[in-house]
Amino acid sequence: MKKKTNRYFAAALAAAMGLGIMASSVGTVEAARGDRPPAYENGTSNEFSFRMREEDRVHEQNMRKIRFEFRRDGDQGKYQRAVREEQKRHDQVVNKIMRDYKNNKPWHR
User: Fold this and answer.
1) Which residue stretches of 1-109 are H helix?
2) Residues in contact with 67: Cβ distance below 8 Å, sequence separation at least 6, in sequence order
3) Is the dihedral of CA 76, 77, 83, 84 positive or negative?
4) Can you give the pTM of this predicted structure?
5) Which of 108, 109, 9 shows the shortest CA–CA distance to 50?
6) Quick one: which of 72, 95, 94, 52 has its CA closest to 82?
7) Which is nearest to 47 in space by CA: 97, 96, 93?
8) CA 34 to the chain's CA centroid
9) pLDDT tens digit sequence for 48-75
């Protein structure tokens, strides 16, 4: 009888401690979540930085594709045209992002 009581007491004590720890950690998580602004997928905290990083990623990916095609076929003229067109596209997108930033106009509206 004494052993059963000790087991129940130990189980009840462990459950109480577990619930106490869980309750205290939930309050901390909720407080921390409310203090900071939501982050975007790539770690930025505002949409203009997000757009710039996304454009840099797309630009780098396109440049790698152009370099790969140049190594495959070796056509210098085609390579230079593709690089010039990609740089022009990249500059236009970056200018649009900067214009939206200066006018305080988000891209999703």
Assistant:
1) 2-35, 47-73, 76-102
2) 79
3) positive
4) 0.60
5) 108
6) 72
7) 97
8) 18
9) 888 999 999 999 999 999 999 999 998 9
